[in-house]
Amino acid sequence: MTEEHRTLVHYRLGEARETLEEARLLARESRWRGALNRVYYAMFYATLALLAVRQLASSRHSGVIALFHREFVRPGLFAREWARYLDIAFNLRNRSDYQDFITPDVVQIEELLEAAGHFITEAERLSQQLLAL
């Protein structure tokens, strides 16, 4: 792996942490639609970081998620218990962003906020482990 790829992995993990903090700020202000969007993107950026470790990419969100499951979840490298929250957040964010009259569920968003922290921590752990190889 090149130094450029290592830098990209660390950059994307930083993006994930920053975006999670944005989600928390929005949630504190009861801006649930924005919080849902940012919590999804926090996990998405962490997923992109993992894919960068393997020098993989996709132009579509669904493609990124499919690669993530194929490369990290199915082989047992990334905990399924946290991975499922990416799928949940993706579906909820799509509905919230693209459908009219959708009101995000506050309890579900709070659960996603908690899970996103674990998701990012798991992505950081795995990326460090894979970069050390």
Defining traits:
globular
Architecture overview:
With 133 residues, the chain is mainly α. It has one domain: Nucleotidyltransferases  domain 2 (Four Helix Bundle (Hemerythrin (Met), subunit A), Up-down Bundle), CATH 1.20.120.330. Helices cover 80% and strands 0% of the residues. The protein contains 5 helices and no strands. The protein has helices at residues 3-28, 32-53, 61-73, 80-98, 106-132. α1 (3-28) packs antiparallel against α5 (106-132). The longest helix is centred in the C-terminal third of the chain and has 27 residues, at 106-132. It is globular.
Question: Structural class, from secondary structure content?
Answer: mainly alpha
- CATH domain class: Mainly Alpha
CATH superfamily: Nucleotidyltransferases  domain 2
Distance from first to last alpha carbon? 10 Å
Q: Low-confidence parts lasting 5 or more residues at pLDDT below 50?
A: none
Question: What does the secondary structure layout of this molecule look like, with pairings?
Answer:
Elements (H helix, E strand, L loop, with lengths): L2 H26 L3 H22 L7 H13 L6 H19 L7 H27 L1
